[in-house]
Amino acid sequence: MRLRALIFDVDGTLADTEEAHRCAFNRAFAQHGLDWSWSRPKYAELLKTTGGKERLAAFVDELSPPPALRRALLERIPGIHRTKTEIYATLVEDGAVSLRDGVERLLEEAAAADVRLAIASTTTLVNIETLLRTTLGRYSPHRFAVIGAGDQVRHKKPAPEIYRFVLRELAQPAGACVAIEDSAHGLAAARAAGLLTVVTPTYWTRDEDFSEADLVLPSLGSPARPLPPRAAQAIGADLLTLDAIAGLLEARCAESEPPAAGRGTQRAGHEGVHPGHRQTHT
Fold first, then answer.
1. Is the pLDDT of residue 4 over 60?
2. So what's the pLDDT on residue 282?
């Protein structure tokens, strides 16, 4: 089946935004008179919960406050999250976030080949549009045929709902599309929707379990910063091209039956992601 669309996650995939998100949360806490402060290791742990408001609620539960205080804190979450979103937008507008290696190149390759582009994210629409405008230009959101944001579905990743929403809007079968992700939750969501999935982990997700991914790379690669030798050897090139992705899809479609779990997965030596290594997060 011919490749019809690439579906990108946003946070961690299009750009490594998590440090900006972490700083925005901490500044929002201070503005709301809270003495909370999320360190990088703590925030990496909290990322196991997808969605900013959901992450705040999970943190409140970790604190185990008395019932009345818990209810009061949960009621404050929407306001805290609004402040955080405003701060994050300012950070992005000020250039605190840039696209990951190879992202813009692959977007341009897809456009030239008439392969549609889409987004399937758990973050808010305003966060997505701000990132696109500041990294790809004012009109960049129009480059994407569908932008699926977290507030458009009831259940966030690892549920496949956002991917199913995007596939419906694209009017394409899962077998004609490829998802590009950076996290285990995103991988699980994409696989449950029936998508071939390429994973490019970051600092925040590098120790997660990607054994079910079709391909794991440290980045997409760019002429200025090609893939490291081990990754390049695994795919036979210094960067991941649209043709290589289409080849993966064609090979998958050519199989009469889906491979057994874990069989056929290509791994390309991302630091912290090792062949055969599984780490279950609870």
1. yes
2. 28
Rounded to whole angstroms, the Cα distance separating 219 from 239 reads 8
pLDDT, tens digit (0-9, with 9 covering 90-100), for 193-238:
999 999 999 999 999 999 999 999 999 999 999 999 999 998 999 9
What own/partner pairs with CB < 8 Å and gap ≥ 24 does 197-204 have? 198/240, 198/245, 198/248, 200/13, 200/100, 200/270, 201/270, 201/272, 201/273, 202/12, 202/16, 202/18, 203/16, 203/18, 203/44, 204/12, 204/16, 204/18, 204/43, 204/44, 204/47
Name the CA dihedral angle for 231, 244, 199, 84, rounded to a multiple of 10 degrees: 120
Contact 178, 248 (CB under 8 A): yes
Find the Cα–Cα–Cα–Cα dihedral 24, 30, 35, 38, rounded to 10°: 10
What band does 268 get if pLDDT is binned at 50, 70 and 90?
Answer: low
pTM of the model: 0.84
Could you give the residue numbers annotated as active site? 9, 11
Displacement of CA 135 from its chain's centroid (Å): 16
